[in-house]
Specification:
The chain is of the alpha/beta class. The protein has one domain: Vaccinia Virus protein VP39 (Rossmann fold, 3-Layer(aba) Sandwich). It is about 35% helix and about 25% strand. It contains 8 helices and 7 strands. The protein starts with 7 loop residues before the first helix and ends with a strand. Bound molecules: S-adenosylmethionine. S-adenosylmethionine binds next to strand 2.
Length: about 230
């Protein structure tokens, strides 16, 4: 599938905004999201739709993985990660290196099954990822994800719902695969995960106070486990 690549500046702004949220007005929203990264454990971890925060996320995992793979459809995600001089990003990369986390970045479409991922991961993480797909695609994605996880493996899914974004920002998100028009709501999302063989072990919804300014009304975080 041919997609319109996000420009590197778009990725840069996205990354910087995330850090501004963590430190500033939306520290509570960010803390809620980051607290769920603590459910990531095990030696082999996959971050789907990893975005530019791929390295930053490691420090919130409960265990340092020896293998950590990021998959994203936007090549600019990876050129930004490679070329940026952002001090936070440089520190996060250094942290991975010092702790011998073997990182691999792959540009590709998560809707395509990857044989080399079969039964390989202890944890799979999707931040702002699974919830952006329309129903039929989410089903395909979960079929793949289920095969990628080992028995007893965990899937951590964090998603943003109730769109309040300004028109221009929304348009760009749709153009660059950061969101999709016909995505699924919170309750239906969980049902689709359960139908795909995932068992819900934890769920929490954060109600954003200044929805219009933040751009979203709700953040849902879920932890699923699988038994094969
Ligand atoms: C809303 S962003 C989330 C980025 C990051 N995970 C975060 O924590 O903010 C969605 C990400 O999913 C990626 N993406 C969208 N569709 C994809 C697909 N089919 N396969 C792989 N990555 C995809 C986008 O390029 C983007 O980086």
């Amino acid at each position: 599938m041919k997609i319109e690549q996000a420009p590197e500046d778009y990725i840069k702004e996205y990354y910087e905004q995330d850090h501004e949220d963590i430190m500033g007005k939306y520290s509570k929203e960010s803390a809620f999201v980051l607290s769920y990264l603590n459910y990531v454990s095990g030696k082999s971890v996959l971050n789907l739709g990893c975005g530019p925060q791929f390295y930053d996320h490691i420090k919130y995992f409960s265990e340092l993985p020896s293998e950590y793979i990021g998959l994203d459809i936007n090549q600019s995600t990876f050129s930004f990660i490679e070329n940026s001089n952002n001090p936070e990003l440089l520190m996060a990369k250094e942290n991975a290196e010092e702790n011998n986390v073997k990182t691999t970045l792959i540009c590709g479409d998560a809707l395509e099954f990857r044989k080399e991922f079969d039964n390989r991961f202890d944890s799979i993480l999707g931040v702002g990822f699974f919830g952006t797909f329309k129903k039929e695609d989410l089903k395909i994605l979960l079929k793949n994800t289920h095969l990628y996880l080992k028995t007893g493996g965990k899937l951590i899914n964090i998603g943003w719902f109730d769109n309040y974004l300004p028109e221009e920002e929304r348009k760009n998100k749709l153009k660059y695969q950061f969101d999709r028009k016909t995505k699924v709501g919170t309750d239906e999302t969980i049902k689709i995960f359960e139908k795909a063989g995932f068992k819900l072990v934890k769920k929490n919804i954060f109600d954003v106070s200044d929805k219009e300014d933040y751009g979203w009304g709700k953040i849902m975080a879920c932890v699923f486990e699988i038994k094969k």
